[in-house]
């Protein structure tokens, strides 16, 4: 009986150590990936913001401003996804907080549609957005 209990304890200890190592590797991976993505993404967002705000002078062609808006929106969306990866990590360590705020769902839908349009046009797919002109206000965590 004692030998069986001792063997079970050893197996449980080995499983525990393996799981702790797996968790440490996962956290190291998340930290590495988010760092590698954040660094260039922050530069992209910064340059897009310079163009968007016409910091270096006005732009004569409104198409540039539209492109800058798309770059900025896509970059901030990607940054939000990276933050979601970090949130996943925080959720596993029970340190995640959810922030419920009131926001306009129309803006998020518009942003999503604008990000999809170039790829849809390339594929020959037409997308028609039909929404009410009334603001769709939602109370939730807009990052989720």
Automatic annotation (TrEMBL):
Matches recorded under Pfam families: HisKA (PF00512)
The keyword Secreted is annotated on this UniProt entry: no
Reaction(s) the record says it catalyses: ATP + protein L-histidine = ADP + protein N-phospho-L-histidine
Enzyme Commission code: 2.7.13.3
Domain Histidine kinase: 32-144
PROSITE patterns, per database record: HIS_KIN (PS50109)
Molecular function in Gene Ontology: phosphorelay sensor kinase activity
Alphabetically ordered keywords of this record: Kinase, Transferase, Two-component regulatory system
InterPro entries in alphabetical order: His_kinase_dom, HisK_dim/P_dom, HisK_dim/P_sf, Sensor_HK_Regulatory
Enzyme class: transferase
Signal peptide annotation: none
Protein name: histidine kinase
Native source organism of the sequence: Trichonephila clavata (Joro spider)
Phylogenetic lineage: Eukaryota, Metazoa, Ecdysozoa, Arthropoda, Chelicerata
